[in-house]
Design brief:
Length: about 725
Amino acid sequence: MEHAQEHEACLEQTQSYCVERPIYNQELLQGQLHRRERTPQTLRQKIARSCRCSSKKAKSHLYRFLPILKWLPRYPVKEYLLGDIISGISTGVMQLPQGLAYALLAAVPPVFGLYSSFYPVFLYTFFGTSKHISIGTFAVISMMVGGVAVREVPDEIISVGYNSTNVTDSIEYYTARDAKRVQVAVTLAFLSGIIQLCLGLLRFGFVAIYLTEPLVRGFTTAAAVHVFTSQLKYLLGIKTKRYSGPLSVVYSIAAVLSKITTTNIAALIVGLTCIVLLLIGKEINLRFKKKLPVPIPMEIIVVIIGTGVSAGMNLSESYRVDVVGNIPQGLHPPAVPEIQLIPAIFVDAIAIAIVGFSMAVSMAKIFALKHGYTIDGNQELIALGICNSVGSFFQSFSITCSMSRSLVQESTGGKTQIAGALSSIMVLLVIVAIGYLFEPLPQTVLAAIVMVNLKGMFKQFGDVTHFWRTSKMELAIWVVAFVASLFLGLDYGLLTAVAFAMITIIYRTQSPQYRILGQIPDTDIYCDVEEYEEVKEYPGIKIFQANASLYFANSESYTSALKKKTGVDPCAISAARRKAQKRHAREVKKANKLRKKATNDMEASVKHEIANDELSVNGKFASADATVQDMYPDEHEHFVEPKANIHSLILDFAPVNFVDSVGAKTLKSIIKEYKEVGVCVCIASCSGPVMNELTRLNFFDNTVTRELLFHSIHDAVLACQVKDRSASQ
């Protein structure tokens, strides 16, 4: 009883509307509307307009190119400064050890990680639009850079010319190898920065949309496996060759296992101790996030402890533990990258540029949505391009947004880009003043920092179960991105994943969902008849909908699905008609022959009866033709022409975004074929852009007019009913 009362109250609250209007097709609707007059501009006028400059336009472009000019004069010092200072210090404390650690991934000396944590971060303050992301070294990009550096400068090339029996222990060998790899990394940063800058100036910020979330997550998970395997040799303190390219993970693991007996126990103990401390620190920060004013800077604590223990116990000399080594004080003078390397690394630079931008802009969008401001994707491309290209002149390698540091920068109260600038100044102080103090730092400590920071990426393996429940297609993208990036390398893996994602888009448009719609009684709402019990079809009318555009790739499947769903195949009906007509003609011909033969036989029989004086009662002979007619009645009476069981077909074009020339021809062919079997085809809910495309493609003519296009499905249904009633009368 209570439920019934609630239902009645709900019905009373339901709003309704009643509109009385004519049945609109496009011909009638366009006749009642007046188009706005628009004067088309010539190409010369467009160029002149874009080149015209005013003080307001120049100011707008300047503010867009240098966002700091817009927000810095309005900076509320009392409200924001303290939070930015705390955030900048907290982020800088993370920036320092991560810069040193990720330099190992990039196959360059650790000091270059510090350079990459200063110049680009400082530059982003002026050109970036995100207030919360932390620019600098990042594991995935560093790994991609390292792969290119090792591929272009393998150990075998540098070892040529050294006659020492123990080449790997030669200081000159390491110096020459590292110098060449630095040049590759620097040139790669320069080229990727130029690519990002050009894409930003050309307003190509949309390229990031082709790196979908499943693709990026699968790719970064594979990159985490690459990073982890590359750090095993530092954790174990063994010396192996670094591999790049396809199957590099397999080769790296095999190389580590082959030399597992040479493990440096001291390095392993130090590394495992650091991993345990870092995991404990992260767990404390996570559990007591609301109670702690700032996160515990466990990474810098581990670096300080590791450096102190290494220096105090002289791990380098006593236990042969590999350490960071020479960290020159001061900044390098600017130098031009080696341009001759560009042809060999061009494809890699494109991959790094797009992945770096995708990482930064996705993180920036998350924070912008959370804090209620907007970012400019094209300006982010320009900012990253300037950070990479200008930073390369000062020996920094490719950078992007770091997820872990960005979360720390935002959670510790960072409000603007000032926090990033302060973190870069902290790194500068280390480079200029106290960098030499970190020379005894064991490399196994840096490997531990890298490995623990991969924890978040390894959690992405949980995406498999998530995508299995939500979308099998996105699961396929994730798996392909992961497997391809894991075994083919990050560069070829990314290209393979993007290509597969494109194929899935084509597959989805080639295999859309097709539905037959029916009316919810006493409304103008139409839904899938197979999904709802209340939905009913109109007798003699079929409403067909495909949730995709009509173009060359799916035009055939559209036609076949239309015939299957409606149960009306014009070709089959026409063929059946022709077959029936031929069969009927043969039967009539056969009947005529039999009739003629029977007539001749009857005449002979009548003559014989006359001879025997057998006359009819009324004195007249029985008609031979009449008798034969009774024996062989007219076959036309039994001929029924095959025909369709519907009189109208409505195509719902609401989901259609575009139609190409093949689609227009297919649509015209459908209208013609169904007309031949007595079915009138109408198009409903066709959007303006699609209508304009059909007009440009010369779709409309004497046989196909705009009268077949209706504003809505309900308009088309009512028009078909009126037409059927008038035809039956």
